[in-house]
Amino acid sequence: MPGLSGLLDMIFPPRCVVCQRVGAMVCASCLSSMEPPEAPICVRCGQTMPATNSPASGLCADCASGRGPKHLDGIRVATSYTGAVRPAILALKFRGQQRVAACLAPLMTAPFQSYIHSADMVIPVPLHASRRRERGYNQAELLARAFAASQGLPVRTDVLVRARATEAQTHLSQIERRRNMAGAFALSDPMAVKNIAGKRIVLVDDVTTTGSTLDAAAEPLHAAGAAAVWGLAFARPLVGGSDANDAP
Ligand SMILES: [Zn+2]
Ligand SMILES: [Zn+2]
Question: pLDDT band for position 2 (50/70/90)?
Answer without folding.
Answer: low
